[in-house]
Amino acid sequence: MNVLISGGCKNGKSLYAQQIASDLAACGPLYYIATMIPVDEEDNERIARHLREREGWGFETIEQGRSIAELIGREDVDLRGSFLLDSVTAVLQNEMFPVVMKEGKPVFPGEDKKAPERVKAELAAFADAVRQAGGSVVFVSDGIYGDSCGYSSSTEDYRRALAGVDRALAEVCDRVTEVTYGITEEWK
Amino acid sequence: MILVFGGAYQGKTEYALKEFDAKSISDVSDGGEPDFTKDIVKGIEGFVSRCVRAGENPSEYFAARRDEWESCVLVVTDISQGVVPMDKELRAVREANGRLTIYLAKEAEQVHRVFCGIGKRIK
Q: Is residue A164 assigned to a domain?
């Protein structure tokens, strides 16, 4: 079973998603797809905090911040397992605004305009492959669509693209759940 | 009247077209005048923004034309969820959009919220 979880930031989505992914892993491996590509100390601290939060849950961590469809053919990845991908937001960011390290410093070469369609296709393909193998994926995204201010065009591109990915995932997922301060609302 | 709201890019208009067998659209997101002879009037937040910047009250505009939009599907973007805007005019737009949406939700026979392309009737 594939699940999409979204809602406002810092609302308890990750914890809820961990629980769902863990429940879905009844008899197969439980994977955490780590999507953050750290570029500074703040990122490293956040990753350390996330690792502590997942301690004792039995997650096997897969580092994959982009090209999610690559997981489909990997020998060390059992598609019958339960995957937690947290977050769709980070994957899209990594693909749309790639970071290149130059002499130990992050450099941003610019926006990849082809990334949104690619991410949509890759995530849907991954969801489909896992479903066919008998496994499950829990996707975590972020509801960033309720602001009143206009953003720069690249940020607005990003919001539009993330909404497009969310909607494509909502179509292929069996469940769509919104989390608001730890309270869940079922949309599908 | 049927009110459809939700965040930006959530698929509100696609949902309205499909769900209510609507065909014609008046898009006022650029601040244009609504054409209530169309099945759907969308982008109402854009009309609100233009009204506020021109010193007009969009709720009064709608209240005075109740007969015209009675059989429309009205689509408005929920812009109420973010941080309070620094810009004074934008704060006024956000407030006017909220007030208008409250009024429309009260008057509506049905209210639907759209999330990730999925709609749900909440009234």
A: no
Three-state DSSP at A67 gives coil
In angstroms, rounded to a whole number, what is the distance separating the alpha carbons of residues A172 and B117?
Answer: 12
C-alpha torsion angle, residues A8, A11, A15, A17 (rounded to 10): -30
Domain count of the fold of chain B: 1
Interface of B with A (CB under 8 A): 6-11, 78-83, 85, 87, 90, 93-94, 97, 115-118, 120
pLDDT tens digits, one per residue of A3-14? 999 998 878 898
Nearest chain A residue to B120, by CA: A187
By Cβ distance, the residue of A148, A160, A176 closest to B79 is: A148
> Is the separation of the CB atoms in B21 and B71 below 8 Å?
no
pLDDT tens figures, B94-115: 999 999 999 999 999 999 999 9
- CATH assignment of the domain containing A105: 3.40.50.300
Total beta-carbon pairs less than 8 A apart between chain A and chain B:
69
Q: Would you say residue A163 lies in a domain? A: no
CA torsion angle for A85, A89, A90, A96 (degrees, to 10)? 130
The ipTM estimated for the assembled molecules is: 0.76
Q: How far apart are CA B64 and CA B100, in angstroms?
A: 13
Q: Which chain A positions have a beta carbon within 8 Å of B87's beta carbon?
A: 149
Of A146, A166, A170, the CB nearest to B79: A146
User: A119: which residues sit within 8 A by CB, 6+ positions away?
Assistant: A68, A91, A92, A95, A96, A161, A165
**Domain span including residue A68:** 3-152+181-186
pLDDT in tens, A30-48: 999 999 988 888 889 988 9
Residues of A with a Cβ under 8 Å from any B Cβ are 4, 6, 8, 143, 145-149, 159-160, 163-164, 166-167, 169-171, 176, 178, 187-188
